[in-house]
Each structure stands twice: as structure tokens, then as C-alpha cells.
Design a protein that fits this description.
- The protein is of the alpha+beta class.
- It is about 30% helix and about 30% strand.
- The chain has four helices and seven strands, in the order E-H-H-E-E-E-H-E-H-E-E.
- It has helices at about 10-25, 40-50, 110-120, 135-140; strands at about 1-5, 55-60, 65-75, 95-100, 125-130, 145-150, 160-165.
- The protein has a seven-stranded mixed sheet.
- The longest helix has 17 residues, at about 10-25.
Length: about 160
């Protein structure tokens, strides 16, 4: 597998992957993270592509099998400024990964994407819905530490915040 920036030519495939992910999450006890709002919206994905923050995971046959948002910098995620029930490990520049999803065709897509993002910056933050046990288990397995709780604008569900440095 390899990671590359996504392009507008990848858009339809990315939306298929997000549709699959919404169904998968609902079937695995997490119906509220993306389902009710049909998250993520198409305009957001177009903006991510345009801004250069959207990536795809491509398998050895050249097929797009995963997608995610990644960005690196200082204080790049406004919702991470208000962490409760804990604190971040430190305030140095960090990478953030959002909207990670795979198409279910291969094992290890999520881990491959997260490890790639970590290799880019050596300091990564990620958050997930309290019902997303699959993602919580994955990030813990990859060495992330639960740091507290953050809240997003999209809904009123708290998100568990994790960090690896």
C-alpha cells in the first residue's frame, strides 16, 4: 500500500468509502458519529482536496482503498484547544488526522494510514466518538495515549482525544 494526496478524480471513490464506513460504524455500535449527518459533507471533502490536506491509501493494484485528512502545524485544530478531563502531552506542533475510512477490502488500512501520518511528523493527535470502540482499540494498539475529551461543532457528542509523541 502507499499514500498519496487525493485529487478531484478520487472524489467519487472517496465518497463510496465514506458511505461504506458509515454503514460499518452503525453495524458495529457506532451509529451516531457520522450516520445522522451523513458525515462528511461533500463540500468539506472538496475543500480538503483543494487545500492539500486530503489523502488516499492505494493498494498494490492501484485501487483507492482508504481516505483521510492530515495536516501538521502549531495549534491547527481549534477544537483541540478546549480539552477537558485531562490535557495534551505538550503544546508543540502536531499532526492531526481526521475522517479516516477504509473500504473493508483489506486488513490494516487504518493502521497503515495512521502510521504513515505519524511518520510524517512524530507527534500526532486524533479523536473519536465514545461509541467508536474499533478506532479506540486501534489507536491504543498503535501507542496513542488517551488525553481527555474534546467537543466538535458537528454534534453534541463528546470525543475521546488521543495523542502519540
Amino acid at each position: 500500500m502507499k499514500i498519496r494526496h487525493s485529487t478531484e478524480q478520487d472524489f467519487d471513490r472517496m465518497m463510496e468509502i465514506y458511505s461504506y464506513a458509515r454503514t460499518y460504524m452503525a453495524e458495529h455500535g457506532n451509529p451516531n458519529q457520522w450516520g445522522p449527518t451523513n458525515w462528511p459533507p461533500e463540500t468539506l471533502i472538496h475543500n480538503d482536496i483543494h487545500d492539500g490536506n486530503s489523502y488516499v491509501c492505494v493498494n498494490d493494484d492501484g485501487k483507492v482503498v482508504g481516505t483521510f485528512f492530515f495536516r501538521y502545524g502549531k495549534d491547527i485544530e481549534p477544537t483541540y484547544c478546549g480539552i477537558t478531563d485531562g490535557s495534551w502531552l505538550d503544546n508543540s506542533p502536531y499532526g492531526v488526522i481526521h475522517r479516516i475510512a477504509g473500504d473493508g477490502s483489506e486488513k490494516g488500512i487504518g493502521a497503515f494510514c495512521i502510521n504513515w501520518a505519524y511518520e510524517q511528523c512524530g507527534h500526532l493527535r486524533i479523536d473519536t466518538h465514545g461509541d467508536n470502540i474499533v478506532m479506540q482499540n486501534l489507536v491504543r494498539k498503535l501507542g496513542f495515549v488517551h488525553c481527555g475529551t474534546i467537543y466538535v461543532e458537528e454534534d453534541h457528542y463528546p470525543r475521546l482525544a488521543f495523542e502519540k509523541k
